[in-house]
Amino acid sequence: MTLLEEAAAGKSGKPEKRERLGGKVVALVLVLLVALVAGGYAAAHQVAGDKVPLGTTVSGVDIGGMSRADAIAELQEAFAARGAEPIRVEVAGPSTGSGTRGADVRPDEIGLAIDYAATVDAAGAEDSWSPGRQWDYFTGGDDLDAVVDVDDSLLSARLAELSEGLGVPPKNGRVEFEDGRVSVVDPVPGEAVDTEAAGEALTAAYLDGDDSVELTVTEAEADIDDADVQEALNGFANPAMASAVTLVFGRSEVRLQPSQYSDALAMVPEDGELVPQIDERKITRLVEGATSSGEPVDATVELVDGEPKVIPAKPGVEFEPDDVVAVFTDLLSAPEGERTGKVEATVREADFTTKEARALGIKRKVSGFTTYYPHADYRNTNIGRAAELINGTILEPGETFSLNDTVGERTAENGFTIGYVISNGVLVQDYGGGVSQMATTTFNAMFFAGLEDVEHKPHSFYIDRYPEGREATVAWPDLDLQFRNDTDYGVLIHATVTPSTYSTQGVVTVEMYSTKVWDIESITSERYNYRAPATRHLTTPDCEPFTGYSGFDVDVTRVFREHGEDAVHHTEEFHTAYTAADTVVCGRPPKQD
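C-alpha cells predicted for VanW family protein:
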C-alpha cells in the first residue's frame, strides 16, 4: 500500500464510527418519545374513563366530567320530581271561536319521562381507548336535550278529553263489507290538537320547568285518508269480493260465495292504514255448515221455493279452525282461476256425491195430481203421516217405488191411527184407514209422469171421489203400489196434505220432478157391464151399515207421446172391473113368510 492509500484509509475510518453512534442516539430518543406519548395517552384515558365530556349540559343540568353513574344520578335528582308536578295545559278552539279548555296534566300521566341511561350515553359517556373518544372528552362538551319518552296513546287520549267540544274531530275513511259488496265511507277532515306538536310542547315545559302550556285546535286530516282507502280497496277489499273461494277437503269441496262470507270481513285502522280483519268464528261456522263433524251426509234434491235444488253432500270432516282460516285468507287475494286451496283435514266422503245428485237431472215438475176427501180426524192423521213418509223420496233410474216399503206398517208406533178400511167388500175399522187416498193420488202422479206400472190394484168397488179406472188401494203387507222409474233421469216425489175441517175438504197432492220425457194423455171409456148390488145382513159387533151401488167395467188408455211431439209413441191399457158395493144391513135378515 502506498502512502497516499494509507492516508486515505485513515481519514475514512473516523466518520463511519461517528455515524453508528448517531443512529443509536436517534433510536434512543424515539423510544423515549414513544414512552412519553404512551404514558400521556394512558394518563388521558385514566382521566376520561367513562365520564361525560367536559363542559356537557343536558337541558341546563351540568354533567360534564362526571362518571356515567354520577351523571345519571345528577339528572335523576334534577328531573325525577318533575314527573308528578302538574303542567297547566290550555287548549283554545279554532279561530271561529268555540271556547277554551284547561286542565292540569302530570307528565307521568301521559308516560312522559327521561330515559336517563340513553341521555348520558348520547352525551358521550363511554369507556374507550379510541383517540377520538379522548379528544371528545377534553374538547367535545355541548348543551344537549334529554332523551324523553312519551306514550302517544295516553297523550292522545288526554288531549281528546281536553279538546272535547272544541272543533270537529276528523273522521277516518272506511271500507265496509255487506251482502257480498264493498262500500266506501270517505274520510272527513276536522279540527283537532296536533298530537306531535303537543308532545313537543309538553316535553319542553317538562324539561324547562315551565308550569303551563298553550295549545290550539287546528285543521287536522284523518289518519285514514283517500289514499289509504284506495290502497285498502286495491290490496284486499276488491280482490276479496271478486269471486267465490273453494276449500278442498279430500275429494269434497266447500265453495263459499262473497255473499256468504262478507260479514266475516272487516278492515280496521292500524298505524295509519287499513288492515284486513277476519272473524275466524264466522268462517269456521260457514265451513261447519257445509260439512259434517260426524258421519258424512249424502247429497240429495229438495224443493226450494217450489223448484228442485241439489243439496250438496257433506263430507265428515275434522279440521283445525286455524288451518281453514289460513287457507281462506290466502285465497281472498288470489286472482280468478286460482281461488281454490286444500285444507289439511281428516275426511270421510259421502256415499252419494253432489256430482251424482246433479247427474240425476231433476230439473222441473213433470206431473202432479190432487184428490180431495171428506172430513174425518183419522183421515187427517193417516193420510198426513203417509205423505210425510213419502215426501222427498228420490227414485234413481231403474229404481222401483213401493208404497208399503216407504210408508211401513200402519201401526200406532209408526204414527197411524184406527179408521175405516175395506175388507172383503165391506167397511171395517183398522189402523191406517184412508192411506189408500195417498195410494190413488200417488198412482195418478206416476201415471202422468209416464213411469212404468209394476203393481197396483183398484178398490174392489168404485169410490166416487177417485177417477174411475185410475186408482189404487193398499193393505199391509200383501197389497202394494209399485212403479219403476224407467227413464234416464232421477225422480223426486213431493207429497203434501192440507187437513180437512168440519167445513172444508182435505186436499192431497203428489207431484213428481224430473226431466220431462213423455207427454201423457188419459182416455177413459164409457162404463159397461153393470152389476147390481146385493144386500148383506151382518150380525158381527163391528158391523157398519152401508147403502150399496152398482158395479161396472171401465177401460183407461194411457197415451205416450215424446215430450213436445204430436205423434203417438205407444199406448197402455188398464182394465178395471168394479164389483157392486153391497148394501149392508146390521142384523138378522127378516123371516120369510
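The radius of gyration is 51 Å.
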